[in-house]
Amino acid sequence: GYLFNRKANGIDEIWYICPDRATQVRVQRAILSVDEIVNPQTGEARKTAELDRERLFACFKFMTTE
């Protein structure tokens, strides 16, 4: 599952809650391997390699329920 958290400073967090470590690793790899993002308002596609990947993926957090 996942949890969306909007902080007071306007920064969003998306927490992926996984049942075990193996699932967490699979989910992390899938998300972090995204190589292109599309702006839903303009339709403009950009390669993630052209962007600051650390900043781009900073909102994603992962945890297990183990």
Q: What this model shows, in words?
A:
The protein has 66 residues and is α+β, with helices and mostly antiparallel strands. The protein has one domain. It is built from two helices and five strands, in the order ββαββαβ. The strands form two sheets. A three-stranded mixed sheet has the order 1-2-5. A two-stranded antiparallel ribbon has the order 3-4. Strand 3 and strand 4 form a beta hairpin. The chain starts with a strand and ends with a strand. The model has no long low-confidence stretch (mean pLDDT 89).
Quick description:
The protein has about 70 residues and is an alpha+beta fold.
User: Averaging pLDDT over every residue, what do you get?
Assistant: 89
- Element order: H for helix, E for strand: EEHEEHE
What overall geometry do the principal axes of the alpha carbons give? globular
**How much beta, percentage-wise?**
25-35%
The total tally of domains equals 1
Number of helices: 2
- Strands, count: 5
Query: Helix/strand/pairing class, anyone?
Result: alpha+beta
Strand order of the largest sheet: 1-2-5
| Largest sheet, strands/sense/barrel | 3 strands, mixed
Distance between the termini: 14 Å
Q: Indicate the low-confidence ranges by residue numbers.
A: none
Radius of gyration: 13 Å
Q: Percent range for helical residues?
A: 10-25%
